[in-house]
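Friendly challenge for the regulars: who can give me the structure tokens for this chain first? No prize, just bragging rights.
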Amino acid sequence: MRNMFENTKEKILSVQGRLIKNGIAITVEGRDFLVEYPEKIWKVVPIDLKQLILDNLTFGDTHFLPVTLGYTKIKYNTKFPLVESFLFRNQLMDMTKAELWDRAPVLTYLKKFYNLSFDFKRGAAVFPEGIFSTKKNSQPVAIVPFSFGKESLVTVAMCLEMGIKPVLVYSQEPSMTHEEDYKRRKLKEFGEKFKVDTFFVKNGPGLFRYDEAFKKKPGTEVGWASQTTLIAIQVLPFVYAYNADYIFFGSEYFVNEYHYRDGWKVFESYDQCSFFTLHQDAMIRMLTEGRCQVKASLEPIDQINIFDILHHRYPEFGQYQFSCTAESPLFKHSQWCHKCYKCSRMYLFARTIGIDPASIGFKSDLLNEPGLFNNYFGREIKSGNKYELDFCFYTLWKRGDNSLYVKKFAKTRLKQMMSWKKYYQHFTSIRPWLNLPEKYDKKMLKIFQEELDHLKEMLPKS
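First reply, four minutes later:
Bragging rights claimed.
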């Protein structure tokens, strides 16, 4: 309860959520932002589950907005969300990273978020009672949040190899306009080729990320913290429609990393780390009456390993890889813009594992293209494992590669490297894990080990 003697004027943001024909609408500052599902999915969802999704998504999609829009309180017309504590913790633990990326002073965002007040419609939180079936499927079903990135592609391919039915859900990121046209065109083609069900969800609240909606703080990282957590809630209609056993996220090992800034932890990606995946699992088990679990399908390995598995074990899936930030228009007849840090990273991965980058859509040699890798050789702040880039450049240097950036590596960073043996052992080993599905962990670990053994054959031995 607020101190009744404190003379503080609150600045209140009004947020309304309501059910619409094919989903939900969230109204903020007089504008509607829609989450819309395929009609055949939404129409089978019972009203109690729709209300549950409405209350929790409305809060999850908006509770960070006061940090960027300058409010101190949100007044909701929806009831208290059942998983409020999960969502609040998720966002809170990422505020130090948002401060770093936005180059904001330490604790400024954290203080604003911690001090927020929330007001909900009277009445108890909607709780799922008798909504989800306890009947087992003849074939296990996994909902795979799908982006055409290497993680989701490998997850789908592994599901098919292990006898799990994957259902692919591509949730729109409306701030990334260049990628959507490409992905929506390819989604149907992909589904038909591999005989899997694919769906698109319109995600209007995605405009709250980077503050694309209101332009008060353009480009801010506030709001990205809970992307996977929100998607886990967002795909509940598909969990219900398919009686799904799992939601699989392709989080890699490095997302568990953190460092300190002025004594405060800055997590690499808190919503994807092993510890918070346990929270997501508990959250979804609660929302589905124990029906569905959240698991991390690639947790014991890193991005370079995932990339290698995709293009060595599942090359037919690898042809669809889209791992570009798509901030610029895509290169003609390619799924890469050739300008962003992810394009340069994936190009480097391809060269490291010995595949021709042209075979996966690259049209120019990015290891000789000026102006790239500024997050490695310069001071740009970008996501991703710098030790992985060390490993890749070290590998190419040992092979005698003579490209522009390998020469730069030899000149500016080689002396800083740990022993080759440490990089070799780390990136060819299975790391600790918590969240592989128990019924399939042995099969997954076997796949990982077979592909790590293959990678060893590709690498210099000393």
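Residues 12-121 form one domain. The chain has a mean pLDDT of 94. Your move, everyone else.
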